[in-house]
């Protein structure tokens, strides 16, 4: 009866199967972005590439940090550092739901045996000035993915529209593997010569970062870094597009966006340290959003963004 | 005559939008068809998570031909006038007719519109409806520009008559209508063609789709109640949840599972709310103990293992959710048992409204006001004050932070845990009530005092800072608060002057204006209860109209009185007397309130009226003092016959000025007596 793959045995096997699946479906399998981000959406492969007319298809794992979610490794499913699996395809293909369901089969979830549902959930990222409509996907009452058709990013209408899939990898894997506490989840194959659990790898770092995020990080420094990142982002974008050395237009959209990502993560750290009041919160989010918008404005002038400006894309 | 079948097949439509979307589809398409000159016998609309469906029966095959005549300019009018007419009709000069019209010759345009085939009309109407559909929120997808609630995948549009079924040629943004659809996402077997609505419905059900949401609801409810009953339990009814769940599945499969024993200590409301909000589960209760012991979930699939994996998964998710809830509950109980001081302190930092201060300040005001109101509702002032002080502390609890709809409910549990008296705990739960027009009204005196104080503080506060509701804008739900006060007062028969209570509440509110606002709300409320608008106006014009209980008692008595024959006739008599008197007063520039003297009476009818008025006055006076409006009006009714007889026998405006004045003064007595009960000039008829 079943048309799904055999059950995987480890966290990494789930990741590898997703990589293989989406690779086979034609996505460029990218690597994580090398900066601290709060979610896979922040990767420029999603945020920036969702803008402009150029077709795009990418899939990648993105380590994500949410400093306020730290629980010293004790909570069965809350972590300050976790992994998201992200798929973005532009324009969204007509069979994206079927492609997605195929990925669940690939990791051993049989839709004939489980109750898979698409439940209304509109997605919004106030820091990225982005929103879209879609669903959270439920498997037996548990949210296993977010499925979004991007309508706007960085204040720009998305034309064409990107389809974005985000899998919370730990939660999904715990479900597939039947694990109750994330730290007990096999990271590699339990039959390996050296079997490692998620806890073997991350329990200590969860403790260390929880202490760091809540008590250790120097807030004066974080405030200063936030200001620096904000200023640097704006400075980079204020450059004349024409680069005299290269004798062509080079808009520094990506380096500026790196600063926006930095500012966002610094804000999250400050929030975890409890030094941002309710009223200030909105103001900080607004400042990050302003940066994201400026980066989006810059990106759409570049070749990758479909603009006339400089860039290496044909 | 052909039948029409339309299916708009899409990715999952949000459950909350489905019913309205189906109704909109029906309305917009049938309106469009009728406007284009077609008629039909009946139409039905249906929705599932993936489709909106419209079936129209016995549509006319083509629209009626229409002949339209338009009158144009005179033949001798300037050329520009003719040009304009030609432009607007789309005709050429030689297509116009020239007719004699009065003294001139005038151009006439005669446009014959032949009947159009229904297929062409349907195609046009459907495309328009799809492109302009009133979704509350819509989106684009892929590279297209069409907007729909989620990507629209296919259109089925069929005309079915004796000759068979034919596809109506519609194409919207590259989606061409066809005669095929698909069934259940997982249990259906690919696309299939259909040839009529009956065929469609039958094949859908074979492909595991129940088309009608009402049928899905009925199936779910029946299976759920049977399952619970078999286990000696009962399902907690929740219509909203039932409708939502029916909008999440095309083929409902009901499953029941246990709730871990370790969560049985949680309040039933917490279990119920957590299960409903997070997982859309129904709660299953033990009727003997009232405990929630199991959950019911509705899956969208008939799983090969009978749903075992689905239930296991759902239980696991539930366990995680309830662990959170238990964590909140245990932490909250600790704070509650320590006297809730932590929460009281916390509310100092929470702004209620930037011009009305913090929640803590608001609570202080409500406590002081509850103390004042307590004696008016038979409550102990100390208890009312205490209840007001603790009633809102649960706003700081972790549980209410997670589930705001549990405010008050948790307040009661925490007040009990803190060792407060039952009346105080109940008031913590009940003082928000009544929230809606059908919500139960508190009747326990302490709850009533706090409920009134809470709402009146809000109303006077927002009145003082001039944030009154305007038009459809009522962001602070002040209309609801006023209606709440009205119902609290009436249900409990509270006797109080609102003006006096307002004076003790938030300072600086325009009490007269606020009372006028109350009167408007009261009119709406009483109208719903069948009390006439003019009857209310007649009572509002009387003194003491800010005592709502008295006001309504008067209105009810007047309504009943006017419904009787005596009442209607007396009203006529009063109006006649009043009109004659008012006219005479206006004409003579005096007020005839001098006291009529029976010695100037000329006829028996006149003398009889004097007697009747004496008798009535003697009865009405004490009745009014006892606020027995029914008795007063009953006594008034006795005047009907003498007044009628008087008007039949007597001419008021006679030559004899003494007699005339005396009769006018007599009319004044009628007016005075009647006006003491209500302002009858405001009553229609």
UniProtKB/TrEMBL annotation, chain A:
Gene Ontology molecular function: any one: glycine-tRNA ligase activity
Cited SUPFAM superfamilies: Class II aaRS and biotin synthetases
Pfam families: tRNA-synt_2e (PF02091)
E.C. number(s) listed in UniProt: 6.1.1.14
Keywords of this entry: Aminoacyl-tRNA synthetase, ATP-binding, Cytoplasm, Ligase, Nucleotide-binding, Protein biosynthesis
Entry keyword Acyltransferase: no
Protein name, per record: Glycine--tRNA ligase alpha subunit
Lineage of source species: Bacteria, Pseudomonadati, Pseudomonadota, Alphaproteobacteria, Rhodobacterales
TrEMBL record, chain B:
First-level EC class: ligase
Domain (DALR anticodon binding): residue spans on this chain: 573-673
InterPro entries (alphabetical): DALR_anticod-bd, Gly-tRNA-synth_bsu, Gly-tRNA-synth_heterodimer
Signal peptide region: none
Catalyzed reactions per annotation: tRNA(Gly) + glycine + ATP = glycyl-tRNA(Gly) + AMP + diphosphate
One of the record's GO molecular function terms: glycine-tRNA ligase activity
Predominant place of localization: cytoplasm
One Pfam family recorded for the sequence: DALR_1
EC annotation from Swiss-Prot or TrEMBL: 6.1.1.14
Annotated keywords: Aminoacyl-tRNA synthetase, ATP-binding, Cytoplasm, Ligase, Nucleotide-binding, Protein biosynthesis
Annotated compartments: Cytoplasm
Family designation: Belongs to the class-II aminoacyl-tRNA synthetase family.
Subunit description: Tetramer of two alpha and two beta subunits.
Protein name: Glycine--tRNA ligase beta subunit
Species annotation: Paragemmobacter ruber
UniProt gene name: glyS
